[in-house]
Amino acid sequence: MSARPRRGPRGSRAPPLAPLCCFSAALGMLWSPASQAFNLDVDKLTVYSGPEGSYFGYAVDFHIPAARTASVLVGAPKANTSQPDIVEGGAVYYCPWPAEGSAQCRQIPFDNTNNRKIRVNGTKEPIEFKSNQWFGATVRAHNGKVVACAPLYHWRTLKPTPEKDPVGTCYVAIQNFSAYAEYSPCRNSNADPEGQGYCQAGFSLDFYKNGDLIVGGPGSFYWQGQVITASIADIIANYSFKDILRKLAGEKQTDVAPASYDDSYLGYSVAAGEFTGDSQQELVAGVPRGAQNFGYVSIINSTDMTFIQNFTGEQMASYFGYTVAVSDVNNDGMDDVLIGAPLFMEREFESSPREVGQVYLYLQESALVFRDPQVLAGTEVFGRFGSAVAHLGDLNQDGYNDIAIGAPFAGKDQRGKVLIYNGNKNGLNTKPSQILQGVWASQAVPSGFGFTLRGDSDIDKNDYPDLIVGAFGTGKVAVYRARPVVTVGAQLILQPVIINLENKTCLIPESVAPVACFSLKVCASVAGQNIANTIGLTAEVQLDTLKQKGAIKRTLFLDNHQSHLVFPLMIKGQKSPQCQDFIVYLRDETEFRDKLSPINISVNYSLDESTFQEGLEVKPILNYYRDNVVTEQAHILVDCGEDNMCIPDLKLSARPDKPQVIIGDENHLMLIINARNEGEGAYEAELFVLIPEEADYVGIERSNKALRPLSCEYKMDNVTRMVVCDLGNPMVAGTNFSLGLRFTVPRLEKTNMSINFDLQIRSSNKDNPDSNFVSLQINITAVAQVEIRGVSHPPQIVLPIQNWEPEEEPRKEEGVGPLVEHIYELHNIGPSTISDTLLEVGWPFSARDEFLLYIFHIQTLGPLRCQTNPDINPQDIKPAAPWEDTPELSAFLRNSTIPHLVRRRDVPQLEPHRQSPAKILNCTNIECLQISCAVGRLGGGESAVLKVRSRLWAKTFLQVNFKLQPNVTEYRVGQRCRAAHHPTVFSLQMQ
Ligand SMILES: [Ca+2]
Ligand SMILES: [Ca+2]
Ligand SMILES: [Ca+2]
Ligand SMILES: [Ca+2]
């Protein structure tokens, strides 16, 4: 073995081929899903079985060579074959559909031969080793062509000393299994681990849509791995049984990479999709141990095999890229990428991480631009959610492709599960519409139901694609067929809706007393892909459903005197509704008291199973995403005066609880609304409040006794957002109450002067149904509290300074005097943003033609633009090189919240000389230099900082023998002001 010790021979590491090892200690059922079943049929399953221990079901595919024929291909990589002297060479089975009795599946004779031999030094020895080669570990069919591979196929290599390199090999079958060819792309002179000797070609397998083959070889180049593509026609044309080292002209492959890419397993999974905005598909390949074991998936240019773009995993050793699938789940015409990371751990950094697995969906927004992934997380520890991800096609024919995800070790006894996720315009529904449960327990290895999935082919020609699930641990394969989806549009029409008890126009059979009544029409239409011409529904109508069991139902069917009725509804053809009419009457007024609460009438419907034909076909199913109950309400006319004409007079007024809202504030705002009915009863009276885009609805006020806590609902109608409150049904005459609706107004930045709430009460009465319209305008104000803070460094200076004399005519900054730095911070406490503010600082510059504090440099932070009058440094003295700020100063500059009074503790306080009170210099008695700074937009909580570097003109003070104590921390700071939309002038002066 030529492998260097570090790399080790193939057998000394966990082979990537073996199914990720099995955990017998699952932590039990952590998940009890509401088990729906949409829309795969779980009754008319086709189950194929293979020899025990053969791993039958490790790979599966549909084989649909022509429109009228369909079958299932099943790989059984540990099956024994008729090949002489080969042990567990592996096989691919052809399983006809529909299944034919007991002899269901038969081996496809891809290769009947023993190991080929060569003559070495006069003796014949095998040049290849087909025992335990895992033929059938991958199987793929495309338009009648079938490819299956044996990734652990070894060959001897051409070296003088025999070696066994697991190069892997594949076989192609065409023309209804009449012609076969072998394709072993890594069986070449580039042997050994550093070459392609450990390639394991065919570990993963797929087709481009043009029929070209994609072969993954994750072991090449010290397990860097590679992907190889070739055309089937070339493989066939080039094939020769004897010529074992043929090189394919049109073959393409990814190249060897630097050693840092070793052990990353490129080609562990492969798929094809269109991601560059043209029509030529790209290759997608999983690299689950790449990127320091975070795993990634590459999009690879199919023309030159260069790497275009990567998706990278988020957790080490999560095996991101273990599987990859391409589908367009949001039906925008652009392929999306799904990536499984079956070892992903939840709560990775907590004490009890849970290995649940995860699948990532990357929606393509435009060429090579993807949205942040939607994550579908597994729920069962060690369930290996995401071991398989399959594009299903549009399983329910709603226009969006659907996805199946396998969790092969989940569920009871690790029997495995498959979760179906329906696509929608935003991606995938986060809740599965169906969870298929593995039913086979297994002893030695988990049954692995869901380890292998294949969809997107219609095996029974019912226009709905079907799903194959492999369970290699028990040697079983199940074909789940999709049920046709029937979408029912149902309607209840009541006439009239408001019933006058005195208007007795119906006669009950065998009775002379007339009764009040109304007509009830039940209508339904059906729609669906390839559904029967006549669909039988069973409809059940319930009257007065709000009255609980035992309570008097106020309405009954005229026909049967019951409050409910079950009847068949046969619907012929699609789209046009079929209706059935009923008469419903009210009991005599003396039999019930409640005339106020509405009479709720509902119809629910189901498919009439008795109309289904018995046979092979799967039964249709109602659309899971439609409610199969429709409800309407009728009302008893009350409170309408002598004439029984109900004319309400609805009055509405509203006011806000504060006169204005403030930009930048949290702005809790309550509308206090008064609703009155000064006329007769108003039916289904509702208050509508349209919410301006700046505001959000919070809820109804409940703590204030004067305000009624009505039931209100937030609704959205297209882009219009509103609150709808139930004011009573009827809202009786004389009603007068107030309610409070709470809002926040967080989005005021772009609004000018005011925001508007529009309000109205509406009822279902015929006459005068609505109230006055109220448009409530609330003014917007900007209010900001601004403070100025400052610090001087040092806080005081004592002259003379030991061993230092000022220069007579200083040429350099250091010759002027001690450094005095001031920092002013303009801090906008908020809440509103301020702008167009002016910060002015009067700086004690000179007195009697002598300089006092001589400025060398002005520095700003934040939105400040400053100028001075007169100019600074009029003597043109050479400034010192700018030095680093002291830690305190830089902290102050960076973060204004560091209390600058700290400086007092840092500096020894000198006892002021009481006997000679210092003269205070300020802009009233000396010449000041004006620093004027225009302050730009300053949000609430933000600061602008002005930093002035000056020197005390020491000569001035020494000449007059003057002792200055500029205790600068005492200058007037903290001026407060309110800034509005007009400029505000701050003035700051030194004392
Ligand atoms: Ca492309
Ligand atoms: Ca898409
Ligand atoms: Ca769908
Ligand atoms: Ca089907």
Structure description:
- There is one protein chain.
- It contains 5 helices and 69 strands.
- With 991 residues, it is mostly beta strands.
- The strands form 18 sheets. Strands 39, 41, 42, 44, 46 and 48 form a 6-stranded mixed beta sheet that branches. A 6-stranded mixed beta sheet has the order 51-59-58-53-56-55, with no helix packed on it.
- The longest helix has 8 residues, at 887-894.
- One calcium ion binds next to loops.
- Residues 786-959 form the Integrin alpha third immunoglobulin-like domain.
- Residues 640-780 form the Integrin alpha second immunoglobulin-like domain.
- Keywords: Cell adhesion, Glycoprotein, Integrin, Membrane, Receptor, Repeat, Signal, Transmembrane, Transmembrane helix.
- This is Integrin alpha-8 isoform X2.
Please outline what is shown here.
By secondary structure, the chain is mainly β. Helices cover about 5% and strands about 40% of the residues. The strands form 18 sheets. Strands 39, 41, 42, 44, 46 and 48 form a 6-stranded mixed β-sheet that branches.
Task: Give the bound compounds.
Answer: calcium ion
Largest sheet, in brief, is: 6 strands, mixed
Instruction: Give start-end ranges of low-pLDDT stretches.
Output: 1-35, 884-917, 961-991
Give the beta-strand count.
69
Count of DSSP-assigned helices: 5
| Helical percentage | under 10%
Structural class: mainly beta
Strand content: 35-45%
Rg from Cα: 41 Å
Distance between the termini: 89 Å
